[in-house]
Specification:
Length: 383
């Protein structure tokens, strides 16, 4: 097996260094939940709402202005405008619109309206034919609506729409992923943090400098908030300062780890990021790299999968879809180990090359593949 070329593409053109700290924003999921609660409150009280407060997944409460709120017989509509902060997000300014109606059975029914994409392919964690409203936003919408109406006693039908969402979606990868007709309603924390910026890279480097200054010799690089929480549970012996949300900047983080002569780097991530790393890509922003299905096919065969399975993996919609195919064939642990091993070798080579220039010793590498909740370990490997 030939080792892949190590690549670290430049930042996207929109990622500019800023003199001031970057402003966080709100996900489409958060704004949809806020609009749904405002509309439900209006329907239940008969009064248009000017502001609305909802809870985030971490328990915090946030209040939003309601841009529009209208009542009709047996129906209410509310609009919350998305503020993405300083993230270069195509959905900044989107008008997340919720229309709610009473329905006969208790509980909530959730539909996608105009401008919300429809899932047409597997591998996204949603059933084909369903609106592209991800699991955490679904939970947030249900919770928010439940704060305005007793869902054990009453039934509410909620339709989320995004005027101009179909146009916005043309600037995303939705069509390639099989999400057609609009944008996705996304979010895992409710908050948009500007990961793909030079300032975020600087924050990653600073975090590693801080843990080194505190005498720690291990850094755990996590691809996001869910993965970080999961990694903390998997590695309870390490203090919180050792865990760093690396975003797309694995290469920058490894250079800083070598600079501070850390003895170990642990990388925790899901299938998509690990596949990019295994292909030699150290800056994994979606505009600068794609998942290599040929690599996933090769991993399938190396893990003992059949040629038929390998061909199906080569036609997978996403790395997640490939992992689902492995799981269906009872190959996920073996393929996951092979993927982790290849990613670990890439990270080790990058550290060795960096350490040679710094005349220091490279850190040990340990890679953990987690599931798509970020909480459970699928496989691991060291290099």
């Amino acid at each position: 097996m030939t080792d892949p070329e190590l690549r670290e593409p430049d930042l996207p053109r929109t990622a500019k260094v800023r003199k001031q700290a970057l402003r966080t924003g709100w996900t489409t999921g958060t704004c949809a939940a806020a609009a749904a609660k405002a509309a439900t409150t209006a329907l239940a009280t008969g009064k248009a709402q000017e502001t609305v407060e909802i809870g985030l997944p971490d328990g915090r409460r946030v209040r939003f202005p309601v841009a529009e709120c209208a009542l009709k017989p047996h129906e209410a509509t509310a609009v919350v405008v998305k503020d993405a902060g300083d993230d270069p997000d195509v959905t900044h300014g989107a008008r997340l619109t919720a229309t709610v109606r009473w329905r006969e059975p208790p509980g909530i029914g959730l539909q996608g309206g105009v401008g919300v994409g429809v899932v047409t392919k597997p591998g996204l964690g949603l059933e084909p034919g369903a609106p592209a409203i991800n699991p955490v936003p679904r939970q947030m919408i249900t919770q928010a609506v439940g704060e305005a109406a007793d869902l054990a006693q009453h039934g509410i039908e909620v339709t989320i729409s995004v005027p101009d969402g179909e146009r916005m979606a043309r600037k995303t990868t939705n069509a390639r992923l099989g999400i057609l007709g609009g944008i996705s309603i996304l979010g895992t924390t409710g908050i948009v943090r500007p990961f793909s910026t030079a300032s975020w890279r600087a924050s990653v480097e600073q975090a590693i400098s801080v843990l080194a200054a505190q005498g720690e010799d291990t850094v755990v690089l996590c691809t996001g908030g869910r993965t970080e929480k999961g990694a903390m549970k998997m590695l309870p012996e390490l203090p919180e300062v050792c865990f760093v949300e690396v975003g797309d900047f694995t290469g920058a983080a490894l250079r800083k780890a070598v600079e501070h002569q850390l003895s170990q780097v642990v990388f925790a991530g899901m299938a998509g990021k690990l596949t990019k790393l295994a292909a030699g890509v150290l800056m994994t922003h979606y505009t600068r790299s794609k998942v290599s299905l040929d690599l996933l096919k090769d991993i399938t065969l190396a893990a003992g999968g059949t040629q038929d399975l390998a061909e199906r993996v080569a036609r997978a919609n996403t790395a997640r879809h490939a992992a689902e195919l492995w799981d269906e064939a009872a190959l996920l642990p073996a393929a996951g180990r092979e993927l982790c091993a290849r990613a670990a070798r890439v990270l080790r080579r990058f550290c060795e090359q960096t350490a040679a220039r710094e005349t220091t010793a490279p850190p040990r590498i340990h890679v953990i593949m987690v599931d798509f909740t970020g909480q459970a370990k699928i496989a691991e490997a060291a290099a």
